[in-house]
Specification:
alpha/beta; single chain; 11-stranded mixed beta sheet; Jelly Rolls; Spore Coat Polysaccharide Biosynthesis Protein SpsA, Chain A
């Protein structure tokens, strides 16, 4: 049995301002209908005939986002293993292995990141089949990509034929150039294939502390439908470590064989904006544009406009990313340093490091379209059949105007139904709830007024989403 495991953690800080901690890059669509996460799920699930066989490991914060994106592609029976805090990939894969073995089975885990791009699905499937053959014999298989540049942001694999002799972490440029000349070094694509029991055996051998701590957290798990949560406090105690450092780099010359399968399928980890430019369709002058972008005498640029016109005049090799609340302008060759902007935002306590102006919620989304002293205006959409929590605010009142659909409003002891162009008022301190009883999305304009308008001014009494 083959069991795909999608690792959907991480914050993607180098793709700010499009990627943020509450909506990281794996859940973004970069120019087509499917997100990177959805593409990874579809790609990996195509490797097995068991249509209900997929495990997603993600952060508790992203559970509804991941579940909704799975639903959009028709994957409604797959389990989500929810990490209360990030502990890197070694504990994440261990959760998947323990989950896979619960019924006495020992499936082969096909572990893939959720945020990579693969341009040639057939070549990917051929490489995957070869990796599975190695795993069936009790080995660990890893996919490696022949380098096309002296990249210093990737780990490297040295292979003698299909046997791995050693791993090298992110070399300097001179060393990377030497690897390209050598010809026996490959980029580590971060895709691993092995039996569940082999992974647990290897982890117990090389990092018994991670193995025992993860098992403790798993044994006290909570199962809520397709949401599976390891014990929060026990999980926090797990040492944070990557699969590479914890296990994979120890396997060469050990009793557990490790093999590398070349992957020539247009792989890119989209780790920075210059990598996005690399895989984008470009014009004759090397520009890759998405959205409403105008250009004069400019070349080899990447520009993304999400809410307004972006104009480029006489610039070359730059990255311009426009979102409703932030604009990034960067030298294309320094796009790895975008994370430093995010660091500055965090130091300054700025919410733009975490939140977009438009924020997804399990019931729909809200977009903060304007605010000033003692007021804030939001556009809110509630999905059919969904509802916000029963709640109250200590420091703000709210006015709701329905612009689309039907709203069921609870305000104190009263329940009323509002349709398009109707409105209501929620006094400060009143218990209230907004629901959509209809079959089409509900959209309202909310005007808040009060001394404090932060999102933490909320007291929940009932919430169908367990928040």
């Amino acid at each position: 049995m083959l069991l795909p495991v999608i690792i959907a953690g991480g914050s993607g800080t180098r793709l700010w301002p499009l990627s943020r901690s509450t909506f990281p890059k794996q859940f973004l669509s970069l120019g087509d209908d499917e997100t990177l996460f959805q593409k990874a799920c579809i790609r990996c699930k195509s490797l097995t005939s068991d249509i209900n066989s997929l495990i997603v490991v993600t952060n508790e914060l992203h559970r509804f986002l991941a579940q909704e994106q799975l639903r959009e592609i028709g994957f409604i029976e797959d389990d989500l293993l929810l990490e209360p805090v990030g502990r890197n990939t070694a504990p994440a894969i261990t959760l998947a292995a323990l989950h896979a073995m619960e019924n006495g089975e020992d499936p082969i885990l096909f572990v893939s990141p959720a945020d990579h791009i693969i341009q040639n699905d057939k070549a990917f499937q051929n490489a995957a089949r070869k990796a599975v053959q190695h795993a069936m014999n009790g080995s660990v298989a890893i996919l490696g990509v022949a380098p096309t540049s002296a990249h210093t942001g990737y780990g490297y694999i040295k292979a003698n034929g299909d046997a791995v002799s050693k791993f090298v972490e992110k070399p300097d440029v001179n060393t990377a150039e030497g690897y390209m000349i050598d010809g026996s070094y490959y980029w580590n694509a971060g895709i691993f294939v092995t039996k569940s029991s082999v992974w647990i055996k290897a982890l117990k051998q090389f990092r018994p502390d991670i193995a025992s701590a993860t098992i403790r957290a798993w044994n006290d798990k909570d199962v809520d439908g397709h949401f599976v949560r390891p014990d929060k406090e026990a999980f926090k105690a797990i040492p944070s470590e990557s699969i590479d450092y914890a296990v994979i780099e120890h396997l060469p010359n050990s009793e557990i064989p490790i093999y590398m399968v070349p992957l020539d399928a247009g792989w890119n980890d989209l780790g920075s904006w210059d990598a996005v430019w690399d895989v984008s369709s470009t014009s004759t002058d090397g520009n890759a544009f998405l959205g409403d972008v105008l250009s004069i005498d400019s070349s080899n640029n990447y520009a993304l406009a999400s809410s307004r016109i972006v104009g480029l005049v006489g610039v070359n090799n730059v990255i311009v990313v426009e979102t409703p609340d932030a604009i990034l302008v960067a030298d294309k060759w320094r796009s790895q340093d975008v994370r430093k902007i995010v660091d500055q935002l965090k130091v300054g306590g700025r919410e733009e490091s975490d939140l977009h102006r438009k924020v997804c919620r399990p019931w729909g989304w809200y977009d903060s379209i304007d605010e000033g002293e003692r007021f804030k205006v939001k556009r809110i959409q509630v999905n059919p059949g969904a509802s916000l929590s029963l709640q109250k605010h200590y420091q703000r009142a709210e006015h709701w105007i329905v612009v689309k659909g039907t709203a069921e409003v609870t305000c104190g002891d009263n329940v009323l139904t509002l349709t398009e162009n109707q409105s209501t008022y929620i006094p400060l301190g009143e218990v209230h709830r907004l629901s959509n009883p209809g079959k089409t999305p509900l959209e309202i304009i909310e005007v808040q007024s009060g001394a404090y308008l932060g999102e933490d001014d909320i007291v929940r009494f009932e919430d169908k989403y367990g928040r």
